[in-house]
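Aim 2 progress update. The chain analyzed this quarter is reproduced below.
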Amino acid sequence: MSHENIKLEANKTMDEVVENFKNVFIENNLVRWNVAKEDGLTHYPFEDMLNDFYNCGLISKEVRDHTIKTREEDDEKFWDNYFNNRSNHEKNR
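Predicted structure tokens:
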């Protein structure tokens, strides 16, 4: 694949994508920011960055897709918990 033909979604250059990739790690087929090692939280890159990592050949399609799916599931759980807790808090007023 020629580097000139790669379409990057996060409006980055190849060098910027490679530099960003230095700030992630892959564990259990999930791409996570290095800060996740420090605080124990998930910290998944956004989908556009995952697509750039994939399009630059830095991660496989399987890793990209698994990370996107897991991030969406985690986000959905977060918002469900947030709105349920908010609703419960307002009922107890």
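Residues 3-91 form one domain. The chain is about 55% helix and 10% strand. These observations will guide the mutagenesis experiments scheduled for the next reporting period.
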